[in-house]
Amino acid sequence: MSRTFKGGIEAVRGVDLDVSEGEVFGFLGPNGAGKSTMVRMLCTLLPPSGGSARVAGYDVVDHGDEVRHSIGVALQEIGLDPVQTGRELLELQCGLYGITGSAGRERTGELLELVGLTDAADRRTKTYSGGMKRRLDLASALVHRPKVLFLDEPTTGLDPASRLTVWDEVRSINASGTTIFLTTQYLEEADELCERLAIIDAGKIVAQGTPESLKAEIGKDVVSVELHGADAERTQRVIGDLPGLDRVIAERDALALFVDDGAASIAEIVRRLDAADVEVGAISVSRPSLDDVFLEATGRRLEGAEQESVDESEVEDEAAAKALAP
Question: Radius of gyration over alpha carbons of the chain, in Å?
Answer without folding.
Answer: 23
